[in-house]
Structure formats: structure tokens, C-alpha cells
């Protein structure tokens, strides 16, 4: 049965089974749920939603938030379904826990489903599965999530978000998905026997850990990016945190995992330390029997807290990143790529029969561990393999013929309507109202639009300008001309680095000094901020109008300003507009100016070893020696064209050429 239009389903009562539905190309109204395990007879129990499909069931306004499947009650099951192409915010499957606390143990089962093709979201709330929330995170939910396939799940960093206690995540497969399995709130989760196959996808990751008494064993993590600064990332905690904050990691066990060819650290020990009040290092953590082979970054990253136990780990490839110690054996594990595409220890590997016992009695294949145990997720065995990375034939509604998209990610449509974009570094002039000599300056940044931004002075006036008692410290002036009358909203792509650099002054109109405070990010990430509205009359069309931006706090950076007649654009839409104006990039064009030249060498050199993605970067998430080779091979190319016949400059002449190009970049490049 195909349901479209505004169809929805309520499952209310006990021992009910819904089988074989197909929700397609519809939406819902006056509700937050497509499928809801509650209704006129109360919350469901011992009921099932199975062998069904929800496909492209999205609202006309993609900012409307609702959930595809909402679990209430107890002992319900969601299994063998396909969930495809959800574009709106709201978890695909969410378990709501009883806020009265009377029924805390939900004991639901989410298994054998196929979650496919969720494009990137523009804010939090695009999880694929969420179990509980901040307010119920202390409840003992006991929810089982197993044997599910997640493909191209890019909604947000939390593909799975566990926000309750005693949940189990086992035997799931994550393929080409930009995100992580995140133990966000709550305690005592088990993450066992999952396959994280990044397949080189930017933004892919493994497991992010917050809270106490978690067990992470027998997982296979390969070819993932550096989404959470580590394939397994232990998060720094906040003292006396509120429910929505970061609890300290305590008493975690990380054992018998295999981590191969990852874009960042294999295990990060203090992710987020120093940001957002996170000052508590993880403590009493056991890291044992893990097999790690990777070359992209230090294998371990961060500072360990008290009570760490290291035992029988093999780590090989890149530098350790931490001091050598008993419990980490730096030796080649002699891995071989098997016909199933998985890296396994060869017959002569030092990982085989290396320890007398372990933390698990089976391996990731479901083969028993007997006698001496092997290090890593795989036990060398002739027993029958009962588990493997899942494919579309293993999960989902058997009657539905699923076809993967021809390309991924899908193109983002450019929002309709006139707009005006200005690179912040393309100012007409910079003024110094208080006369202290401190003004906006241009800074080169390969991660910025156009390869540059403007930066507020780091010295001079006090860190926070008070316009009631002092004049402006510095202003950046822009002469703008609009081709069409209308009301435009200003959007600012900007960033701060901490609480003393996260705001600027923006204007309320043209030709007036800026006095509106706009707050920026405080973590060093460029972020779109929505500013005020500006009306262009017919008589103003084509006329130069002066627009002014002011420094409020030190070191704040502004990348671009965008004016659009749509007042509710998302960050993704704004990025798409900006990207549509950028010149086509050649590999090696690390400052994004459309030409592979000596300036790109400078950008590469200044970012070497860092975990960033430069424009034209063939190794997203890291800047390596390989990127130099790409630059050298493409020197002279422009706009995606083949390299010209220009010779690569010798090191002796490179500094002079770099200086000359650097100076030329100060000239204005574009007003679109």
C-alpha cells in the first residue's frame, strides 16, 4: 500500500503489527510524526513496525521539523524497513522516554533497517537515530540497535545519538556516512562489533564517547575521516555540567578494536579540551588489545587523565603522538586485505595468539575466541563466519527495489532571488576613527572564501569597544550597488576564537556607522550570522551605497558578506551561493584564487601537518607532503585547466615570488 499526501500512522495499544506500508513523496500536517507508537488507546507496547518504506516524505518547507518514526511505550520493535531521502530536521527514528519516570526502561528494538541518503543538515537535529534527550538522559532505557545499515547518512555529526543509559549498539554497518556513533548523554552503553567503513568520505568518523562505564569492543573502523578528531574519541567533560553539557568520561573500556587507515588519530584522549568549559580529562580508562595501523596523523592524540590502563595494543604507521609505554607495541601487524575488503592479520602477524585472554569471547565475524586470543577485532579462525559488513540485500523491506543515487552528495539548489556578495577583503577603504593606528587587516586563509578574510586588531583599545564612551576603533567601508529594488537581508560569514573575539559591529542602514552587535562563533570556525534588513528603493538601484563594518572585539575575522531577498536562508544554502561564485579549482589551488602558483605553496607550507581541508585539497582533513606533490604537478594551472608550461620555481626564488603574489592578493577581486 502506497501512502502519500498527508498520510500518517498511529500505533496505539498492544501486540500490534504494521507490515508492508510505503510512505512516498508525501508530508504531514499538524503533527510531529509520520509513524507514532501512541494514539487514542495510549502508548504502544509489544508492537511492531516492519517491512515498510518511508521515502522522500518531506515538507514543502524543509525547515519544518518532524520525525519519521517516534517510539513511545515499551517493548516495541522497528525492523526490516527502508528510510530513504529525509531532508527536513528531526531524527529519522527517535525513542521518547517517559518523562514522568514511571516507565524508564523502554526496551525497544531497532534492527535490520536500511537508512539511506540523508543529505547534510544545517543545524543540530538531523540525527538518524536518537534515544532519549537531555531531560531523560539519566533514565535506564535498555534499547537495542543492531544489524542496521547506514549509507550516506550526512545529516549531522551524530548519526546515532545515545541520550540515555544501558543502550546496546551492535553489528551495525556505517558506509560512506559523514558522522559518528555518539554516546552523547547517559552511561553504560555497549558499542560492539560494528563496521565503520568511511570509504574515504569527508566527515566520516567512528565512535564519540561522553559519560561513564561505556564498553567499546570488537569494532572495525577503516578509511574514515577525522570528524571528531579521532576514530574513537574520548570527550573532555565539564565540571558540574547541566544535562545538555558534556559529562566526564569515566571507567570506559576500549578493547579488541581494529582501526586502519584513518584520517586523524586512531584514539583521541581529550576531544574538545579547553572549549565550552570542557576541562575534565577522562579517567579510569582501559585501552587494551586494540590493533591500529594508520599513517595520516599521530596514532594517539591528547592528554590522558588519571587511572589509564594500557595493555597489549599494537600501533604501527605514524608516530604514536604520546610517550612510549608498556602496553603499546610498535610493530608491523602484517595486515592483508581479504576478498571481503577487510584488513585482517596474516598468518605470521604478531597479533595472532598474542594474549592469554580478552574482554570478549567472539570476534567481529562472530567466530569464537578460544585458546590464546588475537589482538584486534578479528580472531584467526576456521569457524563459520556469521557476521559481516551489511549490504542492501541483508536489511530493509525485501519487496522494495532500492537504487543508490548516481552521485553523492546531491547538488544543493541555489535559492531563487537577487543577491549581492562581497568578499570582506574587497573593501573600498579602511578608516581609523580613534586614531590609534590599529585597523582591519587582510589575512590569507586557505579555508576562507577567496582565500582571505579581514581581521580585527589584536592590540589597541580594550577588548570590548563601548561606543557610548569611545569612538569606533576601525571601520571597513564598502561601496555597493544593487541591480534590483527590494528588501535584502545581510548575512555575515565570520568567526571568533574565544569569548574575547566573538563579536563585531554591523550597521542598521547604508551610510551610517555600525552599532548593532552581531555575535560570532567562539571556536575558530567560520559561521554564517543573520544580520539586519536593508531596503533598496527603485531610485537606489545602480547607485553606490556605502556599507560599514566595525571592530568590537579583538581578532574577530570576517570572510564574506551576502545580501539576499530571502530572509530565512540556511547555512547550506548560503554556502551554495558562495560556492557558485568561486572560480573552478584546480588540484593544488590551496588559496582558492583559481590559479596554482607560488602563493599556494605558502598556504600549503603554513598549514603543513594541520587537520584542515584546503581548497583544491586531494587529501581532505589533513595537509601532508602528498599535497605538495599535487601542487608541484599542477603548478601553472588555472580554473580547473591543465597545468601550463611554466616551470616550478626553485626553492631559492620561491620566497621572492611568494612575496610578490602575496602583495597582489590585497587588490580587490570580485564584487558579484
UniProtKB/TrEMBL annotation:
Keyword Lyase: yes
Domain of life: Bacteria
Pfam family, one: Chondroitinas_B
Gene3D superfamilies: Single-stranded right-handed beta-helix, Pectin lyase-like (2.160.20.10)
CDD domains per the UniProt record, alphabetical: PL-6 (cd14251)
SMART domains tied to this protein: PbH1
Protein name stated in the entry: Probable pectate lyase C
Gene: cslB
